[in-house]
# Entry
Amino acid sequence: MTSHAAPDFGALLARITRALEARGVPFMLIGGQAVLLHGEPRLTQDVDITLGLGPRHLGEVLDVCVELELDPLPEDVEGFVSRTFVLPARDSASGIRVDLIFSTTPYEAEAIARAVRVSVAGADVPFSTAEDLIVHKLFAGRPRDLEDVAGVIRRKGSDLDWGYLAEWVARFSDIEGRGDLPSVLEDLRRSNT
# Structure
């Protein structure tokens, strides 16, 4: 019988951080890993990283993947990234999926600059702030994302910068035609604080 150890997310996050920082690539962790930091514990089986680079830097990101032994998953990497702004890969050692998300907006650049550093396996890993995690999750809007937002609000409600949240949620609702976002945020705030 073969024994499988639990994947070591911490070691992987530290390796990714060191490799991206050595190349001067701005980035932050979002998704489930950030939920573990700011919200309520839940099972997560992947790593989501927002890069402060657009898709035209794909070659540089692929070089990082080679260095880290992250195997890109799409057959047509360039086509997939140009359509989705995401490079899904799998860590060859642990099997953990890593989604590298290209970004080009001023909001994402600001969110990366605001990231909070947390020591993980000897590296200072940048995680999205609780507020930026909420903005990302509200915009995605899936039931799991809204549950994550509720958990962050329950855990950090009085410490959240509600002005910042209101500003960015309103901007995204205007830009994306999602007029429901401010009311969704307010409903979650009322029911979880």
User: Anything to note?
Assistant: The chain has a mean pLDDT of 92.
